[in-house]
Structures are given as structure tokens and as C-alpha cells.
Write a structure and sequence with these properties.
The structure is a homodimer of 336-residue chains.
Chain A (H helix, E strand, L loop, with lengths): L5 E6 L3 E7 L2 H6 L7 E3 L2 H10 L4 E4 L2 H11 L4 E4 L6 H12 L3 E2 L11 E7 L5 E6 L13 H5 L1 E7 L6 H16 L3 E5 L3 H16 L5 E5 H8 L4 H9 L4 E5 L5 E5 L2 E5 L13 H13 L5 H15 L11 H8 L7
Parallel strand pairs in A: 1-5, 1-9, 2-7, 3-8, 5-6, 9-10, 10-11, 11-12
Antiparallel strand pairs in A: 2-4, 7-8, 12-13, 13-14
Helix pairs in contact in A: 3-10, 7-8, 8-9, 10-11, 11-12
Chain lengths: 336, 336
């Protein structure tokens, strides 16, 4: 097996986040499910945008955020995702390339426009997301460069993108290519509603041994396993994937791999400003340790430090010097 | 004279700021004049954007920022400015309306696109701006609703927009309308390069008694008066405009009106993150006092508090509750 050209290649939604603070009363008025992610159509996106306060635009997308974290930590990364040939598509492409990530998926002409996620952030820092998938859902299998996928140590996939049909086909094909090249496949479940719709698919992927590293949060774990208790859920999945990472927001995280289980606390944060991207950056920190063969505890600590950075400011792309933070706070044995 | 419908109507550039942190070495490499504002064409904008790190987009524009501050302080405001019929134009229009400001200038079809300002922010918080004027420079005199202009207590104009020909004609006409309706005209000089190009125009406006309230910073004062010393500059202009406001960044500000002169210190800030919009928000605070007939010192203190808020975070639109800040920090006799 040739030396990998990339540490991680990811397939994900190519989204620009449109973020504004709001109070809880506005969520109620708009009938938004606090803390959740909901897909919206053009008309609903218009209604929500009209009701939103002055906003800022910052590139997002779950897997793309994870890559931005990995690139900031010095890993070689590539991204595959579909933007439209419009201004927000340019913004997304600029930001991901400026983060040092290779991104070559051609922009798609015509409608729909580039995906955006309207994010309402309440004073407690909780984010409520409303995603207009736009061009993102039309990522065709033909957009995959199979040689590139085969050349990455880890293929990283986001569950959000499993919902639309074309990207799902593209991701299935990417898994075949990566497995065929002897690479690892990492998967983030993304949101419990995705599991409600596609749980059988995910369980089959796991049962078939196609997932090497699985990231879930508490509600995703419950949806995936049907177990109401966190511990029962962990016990039920732990034997089925080589590496299981289960995050629990302020209550820390658990990883199980090679028969070993490690629990860690969450990294303290002065003030939670905006939780958007917490899971994405946890995955970045964890994988940055994993690719270097770090001990499980070190991988988890890296995840916690990266998640703490992202929730201390608006937006799901890192602002601080992540590599320095990780070096300072994890007593890392890995330098670089 | 009928009761004004608006407190302030402004004519200005309709711009989306594209902001990224950078180090001083990048400014040198790109041959950027630190702290300045430079107009750039499409090719230069492309070069600079390609060299810029991951960015965020936040609505900007000097006069529009001032209105956002005024609206946050509870004043009734309207904005006139030209966006293109594109995604960044939608972003600008959304953000200004969401701030509670009336904005009815129709978007302009076709090229060029909506204006953007590429802002490099160095670790000292200084911003270096590169403005692609795009659609903004094609604001036609026909876009003015003269009844609306006549219905505002203050017409606020930004010097930046004096440079392109069509908006300059529109602004000259707006001054006639406002003066004809017995309203006040406020003018911000914006940047010394504008004065270098149009100083004779500005001096003629002042000599003709068409400017009631003039905002300048130190370098603009020097360009406008030809006096190297700040005190000489103030002395030279003070008698020529009813209200002169001269800001000096960290060294505070001076106002002269009705024979009275007041000097104030700058408001302390924990950390200067990004100075973009400092002058714009100083003007907002000052005018919010002025329209209520507040004493000169109170007007200046309001300006200082608003400027301090804006430089404590990225972006030139207020994030904190400005009205509360002003009430807390100015011992304001004016409530609301």
C-alpha cells in the first residue's frame, strides 16, 4: 500500500453559515426546535432569513469544519463537496483553500444556489440550525477523484450528506474505493434525524465492517442503537466498530478501541458563545491524534481542546492557533 | 417646517466587509498601506482575496455602520445606497433592514457586483481596507426620494462616496433638498486620500455654509486645512462649521460648537480586536446625543462609548446592547 498523500479526505456539505444572535422567544415564534438541525426549502429559508437579526457569514459544513481543524493542526487534507457558481460558492471555496485544504470539485452552474445554514444562536450559546441544501445535495458520484480518495489515510464522511440521493451514492462509492485501497473510513452520525431516516443503512455499514471510526453524540447513539441509556448504547456499539467516539457536550466524551475504554471531562470554557461546530472540532482533534498513533486518552484530550476553542466564539472554523492550544493543554507527546 | 419623519437619513456605500486576521509581513508582501483605505479594481481584488486567510463576511459601509449604531440607540433612520442584484447585495439589504433601518434603493441589475471591502486585520487590531466599489459607485441621482430626504432631521453623507461621479451628483442634489427643507447636513471626511482628490469641493461646501456638522480625524483635518498641527487645524475650521468633531483614536476627541470647546479621553477597552468602524460608531454616538439636544460633552462621551464597543470585536456593526452601554457609561440625562 503506497504512502498516503493526504491524512484525511472528507466528503461533506459545502455550506456557508449565516449566523445571528436571537432570544428564545424568537425560536418559539418561528417554531424552531432549539438545538436541532432542520432542512428547509427556499420559501422557509426566506421566511427565517427575514425574521433573523443582522447576521454574519462564515463558511461551515460539518466535515469541512473538521478539515479546517485538522489543517490548522498541520494535517494534509482534501475536501469534496458541491458549491454553485455564485458568490457564496466563491466564499466557501476561498475559505477552505485559504485554510490550506485542497478543494477541486467544480462549481455547479445554474440553480439551486450554494447551500447555506441559517443559525440562530441563543444567549446560552446553543445553536439552532436551518439548512438550505441548495447545490450541496447534487454532488454527483462523477465528482469523486478515485485516485485521490485512495491516496488518503482516512476517508471522513458526514451523515448529513447521506440524506440526499446523489451524494449518498457518491459516498457509497467512496467507501468502496477507500476500503479497496486499504484505507480507514471514519463516519460522523451528524444528527439523530438522519439516523431516523437512514438508520438501517448505517447499521448495515457497521455490520458489514465498513466503518473503522464512528463519531456519535448521545442522541445519535440512542437513535442508532435503540438504547435509552448512554452506557447501554456504548456497550452495544463498542464491539462493532474498531474505534467508537461518543461525545456528551459539557459532560465530556468516551472512546472505546482495542478493548480499552477512556472517559474524559469536557475542557473548561470561560463563556460558551456559540456551540456551532463543537462536534466537528472534537472529531478534528481526535483524528489528529489518531493518525499519529497517539494513545486514546491523548486523542480525546485533543478533541476536547479543539471543541472548547470553537464554542468560545461565533462560527465553526477555528480562530485561535489550534496547534499551540493543543500542545499547551494536552501535554502532548506529539510535537507537530 | 413639518416634524421630521426620520432622525437621520444617510447616503453611503453599500458594502459587505470581508475580514480576516493577518500578520504584518503579509501587508508588506502585498504592498498594503497599513491603516489606510485603498480603492481596488477587479484584478487587484482577486489577487488580494487569493492571498487572504479564511474570512468572515459582515455588512459594512461607513455611513451604513453609523446608521446601524443610531438605530441600536433607538433613532429612526433610512439609508440610500446601491447594491447589485446578487447574493452579497441580499446580505447587505437583509442586515441593514434587520437593524431596523428603512432601505428602499432598488438593486441594480447586471455587472458590476455588490461592493466589498477586503479588510486585513493585524494583531494590533489595526485594519487595512481595500475597497472594490462595484455597484456602489453607480448610485444615480434618480435613486433619491427627495420627499424622504426632506423629512429627515439630519442628512448624513460619507466622503468616500464623493469620489465616484454619479453618487457625487446625487449627494450634491441631496444637500440642496435638505437645506431647502431647513434640515441639517452632517458630513464625514472619511479618508485623507478623498480630501486630496476633492478637498476644493469640500472647502467650498464648508465656505458656502452647507455643512452643519463635520466629522474629521487627525489626518483628514490636516489634509483639509493644510495645517500640520492638530490645534492649528481645529482653530482654522472651528469657526467655519456650526459643529466640528475631530477624533484622535486612542487620544480621545474634541468638539467645538457655539463657541464652546470640549475635549474628552478615549473610552478604555480591554483589548482592541479590530478598529474597523471606530469613526463610524463615534459619529453614531455623537449624533444620537446631538439630535436630542444633549450637551456637547454628553455627545462626545456617547461617541467614545460606541467606538469602544465596535473595536472590541470583529466587524463594524454593533454587537452589544449599545443603548444599555451608553446609559450605563455616560451618566446620561437622556433616557432613550
Amino acid at each position: 500500500m503506497p504512502q498516503p498523500r493526504y491524512d484525511v479526505i472528507a466528503i461533506g456539505n459545502a455550506i456557508v453559515d449565516v449566523m445571528a444572535p436571537c432570544d428564545d422567544a424568537l425560536l418559539e415564534e418561528l417554531e424552531l426546535r432549539k438545538g436541532g438541525m432542520t432542512l428547509v426549502d427556499t420559501a422557509r429559508a426566506r421566511t427565517l432569513y427575514d425574521a433573523m437579526g443582522p447576521a454574519r457569514e462564515i463558511s461551515g459544513g460539518s466535515a469541512a469544519n473538521t478539515l479546517a481543524g485538522l489543517a490548522a493542526l498541520g494535517l494534509e487534507c482534501a475536501f469534496i463537496g458541491q458549491v454553485a457558481d455564485d458568490q457564496l460558492g466563491e466564499v466557501f471555496a476561498h475559505d477552505i483553500r485559504a485554510a490550506g485544504i485542497d478543494f477541486d470539485t467544480p462549481a455547479r452552474a445554474g440553480d439551486p444556489p450554494t447551500a447555506r445554514c441559517l443559525i440562530f444562536v441563543t444567549p446560552d450559546g446553543e445553536r439552532t440550525m436551518n439548512t438550505f441544501l441548495g447545490a450541496s445535495q447534487f454532488l454527483p458520484p462523477a465528482a469523486l477523484d478515485e485516485d485521490t480518495i485512495a491516496s488518503a489515510a482516512i476517508l471522513y464522511l458526514e451523515g448529513y450528506l447521506w440524506d440526499p440521493e446523489e451524494p449518498r451514492r457518491a459516498m457509497r462509492r467512496a467507501i468502496e474505493v477507500a476500503r479497496g485501497a486499504g484505507r480507514q473510513v471514519a463516519f460522523t452520525a451528524s444528527e439523530s434525524f438522519v439516523i431516523e431516516r437512514h438508520g438501517d443503512d448505517f447499521r448495515a455499514l457497521i455490520a458489514d465492517g465498513l466503518i473503522d471510526i464512528l463519531f456519535v453524540n448521545e442522541s445519535e447513539l440512542a437513535s442508532l442503537t435503540g438504547k435509552a441509556s448512554f452506557e447501554d448504547g456504548v456497550a452495544s456499539l463498542a464491539g462493532q466498530v474498531p474505534v467508537l467516539v461518543a461525545t456528551r457536550s459539557a459532560r465530556g466524551a468516551v472512546a472505546v478501541a482495542g478493548g480499552e475504554r477512556v472517559d474524559i471531562a469536557a475542557e473548561p470554557v470561560d463563556r460558551v458563545v456559540d456551540t456551532t461546530g463543537a462536534g466537528d472540532l472534537f472529531a478534528a482533534g481526535f483524528l489528529s491524534g489518531h493518525v499519529s498513533g497517539a494513545p486514546l486518552r491523548e486523542c480525546l484530550r485533543r478533541g476536547a481542546v479543539c471543541a472548547a476553542e470553537i464554542i468560545s466564539h461565533y462560527g465553526a472554523r477555528p480562530e485561535a492557533d489550534l496547534a499551540r492550544l493543543v500542545a499547551e493543554r494536552t501535554d502532548s507527546l506529539l510535537q507537530g
